[in-house]
Amino acid sequence: MDSRVYVNTPMDLKTRLKSWCSDVRVKQALQHMGLFITLMAYTVVGGVVFRCLEHPAEIERISRLRSSLLHSRRHLAERIINNTLGLQEPLEYVYFELKEYEKVLEDAFAEGFQSTHHLDKYESEKWSFLTSVFFSSTVLTTIGYGNTVPVTTEGRAFCIVFALVGIPLTLTVIADMGRLFATSLSAFTERMPGWCRHATIMRRTSCYAVGSVAFLFVYLSAGAGFFVIWEEDWTFFEGFYFCFITMTTIGFGDLVPKKPKYMLLCTIYILIGLALTSTIIELVRRQYLQSWKQLQAMSGPLADTLRKMADSAPGIDVSAFQNDLKKVLTVVTMPKRLANQLDRYGKKQKQIRWEEAVESVIRDISNGTQQKQPSPPVVKIVIYESSV
């Protein structure tokens, strides 16, 4: 009986970890996660820098506007109380003072001051941590709502450098996630029942398009539902409208989330939604590429047939032209008819079978053309003899 005891040494764990990391699928997963984590870290760092540069200036601006409003309000009350006593027409004087106070309010609102309630305890949340991170994400995704912008020279300079470095990184991450989603969708389709796996190319293309668009609308609807819960004054349509305008990077800025505590979740939702949008674009690009390859494969037989028709144009036979046209249409519709048969073979065998089928049709066209060459005209000479 073996009484030895096996103990996992640190070297054994290190070897196992190394072999686990050397797996191809693990490497690919780590690469995808690394890109996404890098983008999130870059976004957070940008938000922190924007907050450090813009928050002090924002506090100073709010303090100045608050002092101006308090002074104007106190001045209005004093002027009305002290100068309306004994006047025969006090309403005109009050109206004049109110117009002066309205000018001060308009200037304050034009500079972004949103509320006159609780002026003594007003604190700006425009450049809070979560709002700053959300702003940096709108810069990287080029959405740009326009409700929050840097006003200091340092903040604007940093925004230029931040966008120059971050926008290519964001596009790389979105494209990587789009390819990942597209590959996952293709693999999922391959595991579907036989009617989907062995469907024709056109039907499969329609399945991809309809499925992708439907999933995108479900994602937008789910986001709209969350925004209805987060933003109490939003309707479902307004939430759906905001999600659509955001995912398409239009970014009008007429509707923007106002609850800072949900900004981080909103940022993650937008990044994933942009990846889903790029997935649909990637699927459409793949279908265009596949259709273009098939068009190139069919252009050869079609060009040969047209060339032969042009050579025989002086004595063209209508029935032969109809037969050749039918054979050309056979080549054009061949992908649809052979889709179920070719799906049973590998990629290399599919290409061989496809070339054999095309060559067979071309051979039939060539043989038919050679057999139906017009016979040379026969000239009959009749000689009459006369005894005259």
Automatic annotation (TrEMBL):
Give TM segment ranges: 33-53, 127-145, 157-182, 207-230, 236-255, 262-281
Residue ranges occupied by any Potassium channel domain in the UniProt entry? 122-181, 215-286
Compartments in which it is found: Membrane
> What is an annotated GO biological process for this record, any one?
stabilization of membrane potential
Chief subcellular site?
A: membrane
- Which SUPFAM superfamilies has this protein been placed in? Voltage-gated potassium channels
| Gene3D superfamilies, sorted | 1.10.287.70
- UniProt keyword terms in alphabetical order: Ion channel, Ion transport, Membrane, Potassium, Potassium channel, Potassium transport, Transmembrane, Transmembrane helix, Transport
Q: Which GO CC terms are listed, alphabetically? A: plasma membrane
Q: How does it sit in the membrane?
A: Multi-pass membrane protein
Q: Which GO terms describe its molecular function?
A: outward rectifier potassium channel activity; potassium ion leak channel activity
**Record-linked PANTHER family:** POTASSIUM CHANNEL DOMAIN-CONTAINING PROTEIN, POTASSIUM CHANNEL, SUBFAMILY K
Q: Which family does it belong to?
A: Belongs to the two pore domain potassium channel (TC 1.A.1.8) family.
Q: What is this protein called?
A: Potassium channel domain-containing protein
Q: What is the lineage of its organism?
A: Eukaryota, Metazoa, Ecdysozoa, Arthropoda, Hexapoda
